[in-house]
Amino acid sequence: MNGGLFFRQLVRESRGSRGRLAFFAACLGTGVAAVVAVAGLSGALEESVRSQARPLLGADLAVESFQPFPAAAESAVAALPGTRTRSEELVTVLYEPGAAAAVEGAPPRSLLVELKAVEAPYPLAGELRLEPDRPLADLLPPDGLVAHPDVLRRLGVAVGGDVSLGGAPFRVTGTIASEADRLAGSFRLGPRVFVSRAGLARTSLAGFGSRVTRRILVNLPEGTDVPAARRRVSALREQLDGVPGVRVESWLDGQPELRQAIRRTSRFLGLVALASLLVGGVGVAQTVRAWIASRLDALAILRCLGVTSRETVLLYGVQTAGLGLVGSLLGAVAGIGLVAAVGHTYSDLLPPGGLDPWQPAALLRGLGLGVGVSVLFGLPALLAVRRVPPVRVFRHDAEPLPASRGLRLAAAALLLAGVGLTAWVQSGLPRVAVSFTLGLAASALLLFLAAHALLRLVARVPRERLPFALKSGLSALSRPGAGTVGSILALGLGTLVVLQIALVQRDFSRQLTADLPRNAPTAFLLDVQPDQWPGVAALLSANGATRTLSVPVVTARLTAVDGTPTAELAKRRAGDSRRERWALTREQRLTYMTELPEDNRVVAGALWSDPSAAEVSLEEEFAGRIGAKVGTWLDFDVQGVPLRLKVTSLRSVDWRTFGINFFLVVEPGVLEKAPQLRLAAARLPSAHEGRIQDLLAREFPNVVLIRTREVLERVAAIATRLGKAVRVLGAFSVLAGLVILAGSISAASARRAREAALLKVLGVTRGGVATALAVEYALVGLVAGLVGTLGATLLAGSVLTAAFEVSFRPSPLLLAATPLAVALLAAAAGLAVSLRALQVRPLEVLRGE
Amino acid sequence: MRTPLLELRGVSKELPSGGRTLRILDAIDLSIAAGEFAAILGPSGSGKSTLLGLMAGLDRPTRGEVLLEGEAIHRMTEDELALLRRRKVGFVFQSYQLLSNLTARENVLLPLELTGQAGAGARATELLAAVGLGERGHHYPSQLSGGEQQRVALARAFGTRPPLLLADEPTGNLDSATGASILDALVRLRSESGTTLVLVTHDPAVAALADRRVHLRDGRIERDETAS
Questions:
Q1: Angle at Cα A316 formed by Cα A310 and Cα A318, nearest 5°?
Q2: In this structure, is residue B175 part of a structural domain?
Q3: For a 10 Å CB count at each end of chain A, is N or C smaller?
């Protein structure tokens, strides 16, 4: 058959299958829409974050440190060409000193803000628009302050009004109209306030122990291209590698941590989408099977006329792929629409500039997976095309010969490999892909065995005394060519996938919106000087604070692990992520205590067990990052004083309690004399939180009160919305799954229409035929539902615990209700499809056949 | 004696049925000469259609040999057989066997296109006109009467001028007047093209038109008569 004829014949053959397109497209399109939406959303978010990376950083590159820059860093940065500027950032409290005293019911007079002290030129990248519209330097004399309008509104201050910052008076000289270096929806502790670096020097905020992030921002000379910029950045990183506490960020990295978080989320959603695509695949398999069954006569005629079996397989294979492409295209369009809708609905959580729904990579992924799934799932049915006996033109009942065992095994292996590959594409993790695929394969095998067991059981049931409907229903199940095994497999797999999505998304959402522990602190107090603590504690308790707890904090630098300098260790670990290496060189915070808090558990060694050494207990993951274990010696530089500590225990910490916890806990009697601050936590009565903050701001201006209630509420709000998105996607798949399940039954039901007509000819009433059909379908549905539910529970449990570290709680009600619901659905769908055959006169159906 | 176009040597066909073997054809020896018009007669269940299926390579004998133009078709693979039918065998069936999603003209065109014949379109038009359906080419089979569908099947069968044409009860589903007109057309087209025709029927009146009548009973050749 030449190309032209093949194409013409393709068009001619498709005439008979156009009616199926709607169902085929609906099956596949739903899954593809989900895949494209998830991949598109993740791609669009990453692209948006990447494109905003330079304005977000505020320059081409930034060198960052919590301590004043060491000379090595200063000289390395000085050697760079281009423009530079410096900034200091910290979280602090802005105070409105106008009223004489803090009184209950009055507007709050203090506010937690994110303060940035800058110098001209600023910013080096992106745009900062101010009101009045003047350069920042003009608005920032040493006593000038520019704030976000929220600050003024909440403190009741106007431009020109006076505020107090770190014990120094400032005048509000303007407001921020828009600031490019803040990511919309990113985590914020308070609104932005700008002062000049000279202004910051007037306050007590940059004193000992304060948490100031110092940055040198550098713009490389005009015309530096990306490769040259990349070379500069890596040269600088190499120079500063091992310089303690200093790190280099560049816009070329494009917010790696944020992008990592996006990828993690899209990995989970990607699997949810894949599951709905696989449900679509089951629908495709059923559609192709029913389609081929209806074309057996035509295939026999074609073979008779001299069309080879290879040509017929190709003809129908290309048609299946074509239908898959059309269905996938429709799904892809819906997916793009979903990305656009999400961009519109969640605009407040997204980076400035919104999302670009046009993501070619996501589209290609959706189309590729859609066509792949349609061919893979259609393949077993397509193979039957090859085996249609041409002699069927004489003998109408000549069915396609069964495929050889080898061929069937090869098709199953191909299907399995395809599912594994798609799971890998969607999750990006081979481990998850393997468990996903094996779980599905095990479930299919279980369904297959269960179906055979049912048939064997049914064959042994003595039927003589049963009522007609039950007798007929049972014999229909076990007669040759009934397709019971196929129906149970399709229905069971559909149930499994749909229920698994429902279970996974339910527990995932529950985890996201999990209630906070009831006794978690509602506020943290940072930067409390030791001599301030009695006063602060008294203030807290006078205002109803409970569960007040404070611990000392000593800042230090880790200088060596088992004698090897950390700078050298960091260099050796050049292959690790920068975050891993950062654990070695950043400023460490140490505390000391006799007994560990309740949320800590010693997992290795024993606490304070070596009288001959000064001991330290490490959090187990942190220990892994710095390469320490029980017995390791750690050298610290505690503000100029060397200190050698021995690791004698490792701890696991339950961070979800939101208690005060440290990576490094030192035994008592070692650090008491070191310069230190106190970190405190307390539960504040919610009505008094504002007043406590106001009082603290007046009495102890350097103390920062962070109200976790607000922060956690914000986190919970974001989590709730994310949970909602997961539920929507899950519900989408569940809905599609239900349609497909009904469809898969209907594909098999068409064959039964003739039998219904025959029974009526033989004198069985309409009710009798309907009951017989209902019994048959309900039995198929019950077995499929039972095995599908079992498989879904196992699969959801393993996916949640192994891949996403989320605990799994099966719901007995859901597990009991599902098989019954599937049985009912199967019976209802089967009857609905047979309705016409039940209603029309038998002769019409028999003639139609 | 004319050269044999089709030869069956000791052909038997057995099928399993409910745990035992059912013998449909038993050691058939038959030779059909090129250009001959042979009718195969017999009661229902005598093995007529099975014999036709074996002649076309649609089915395989349990024992024996089938040779078409000297080629042993019983040894060919399914795809070799398909290619052989494409070039050498035309069919007319009792139930017409038109492709329902192709128009009448496309049904006639398909074998011509498969063999890659030049001027396929003109030939299809000519054939449809020859069977009196020149104006109905754009109709689908479901829009045609039984007699009209069988005429399309005739046009399709003669399209590629196959050396062998096999007809299985071509008038079995038609009333006697329509059946007679179909037979007329069949005989006319055969004599114009010189095609060898093997026709299966249980109707002695239809068989009377043939040069030779082969009587089958219980899977064996009971009588082989040549018209005087």
A1: 95
A2: yes
A3: C
Tokens of A317: 């294979």
Interface mutation target, options B83, B99, B113, B165, chain A, most CBs of A under 10 Å: B99
A1: which chain B residues are within 8 Å (Cβ-Cβ)? Answer: 114
Residues 6+ apart with CB under 8 A from B153: B91, B92, B93, B96, B97, B98, B107, B170
In the structure, what pLDDT confidence band is assigned to residue A514 with cuts at 50, 70 and 90? low
Spatial CB neighbours of A153, under 8 Å, sequence gap ≥ 6: none
Whether A513 has a pLDDT exceeding 70, the answer reads: no
Statement to judge: residues A643 and A761 lie in one domain: no
- The pLDDT tens digits for A469-483 are 777 777 777 766 566
Point out the residue among A8, A306, A393 whose CB comes nearest to the CB of B97.
A393
Tens of pLDDT along A555-574? 888 989 999 988 788 777 76
List, for residues A258-311, the tens digit of each pLDDT value: 666 677 777 777 777 787 788 778 778 877 887 888 788 888 999 888 898 888
- State whether A391 and B52 contact (CB < 8 Å): no
Window B:181-220, CB contacts with A under 8 Å: none
pLDDT at res. A257: 64
pLDDT above 60 (res A686): yes
Domain that holds residue A674: 546-683
Burial of A565 (0-12, 13-18, 19+ CB in 10 A): middle
Which residue in A has a C-alpha nearest to residue B52's C-alpha? A394
Cβ of B100 and A298 within 8 Å?
Answer: yes
User: Residue B70 falls within a domain, yes or no?
Assistant: no
- % residues pLDDT > 70 (chain A): 82
**What torsion, rounded to 10 degrees, do the Cα atoms A163, A167, A169, A172 define?**
-40
Q: Which of A2, A305, A393 sits opposite B86 (nearest CB)?
A: A305
What is the C-alpha to C-alpha distance for residues A4 and B118, in angstroms, rounded to an integer?
14
3-state secondary structure of A362: helix
Q: Which of A814, A711, A813, A809 is nearest to A511 (CA)?
A: A809
The answer as to whether A534 is a domain residue is no
Burial per residue of A226-244, b for 16 or more beta-carbon CB atoms within 10 angstroms, e otherwise: eeebeebbeebbebbbbbb
Low-confidence residues in chain B, pLDDT < 50: none
Per-residue pLDDT, A172 = 94
A392: distance to nearest CA of chain B, Å?
9
Helix (H, G, I), strand (E, B) or coil at A764: coil
Of B91, B100, B116, the CB nearest to A16: B100
Asked whether residue A522 is domain-assigned, the answer is no
Q: Is the pLDDT of residue A170 over 60?
A: yes
Q: Do the Cβ atoms of A8 and A315 come closer than 8 Å?
A: no
pLDDT in tens, A41-82: 878 877 777 777 777 777 888 898 888 888 888 888 888 888
Query: Which residues are CB-neighbours of B130 under 8 A, at least 6 positions away?
Result: B155, B185, B189
Radius of gyration of chain B (CA): 17
**A304 with B91: Cβ contact below 8 A:** yes
Comparing alpha-carbon positions, the chain A residue that sits nearest to B96 is A393
| Interface contact B227, partner A, CB < 8 A | no
Cα(A453)–Cα(A459) distance, rounded to whole angstroms? 10
| Containing structural domain, residue B218 | 34-59+78-226
Closest CA to A294 of A306, A283, A286: A286
Residue B3 DSSP label: P
By C-alpha distance, which of B77, B48, B45 is closest to B60? B77
Chain B residues closer than 8 Å to A16 by CB: 100-101
The pLDDT value recorded for residue A367 is 92
Residue where a domain stops, chosen among A399, A428, A457: A428
Considering only CA atoms, which of A421, A451, A585 is closest in space to residue A73? A585
Q: How many residues make up chain B in this entry?
A: 228
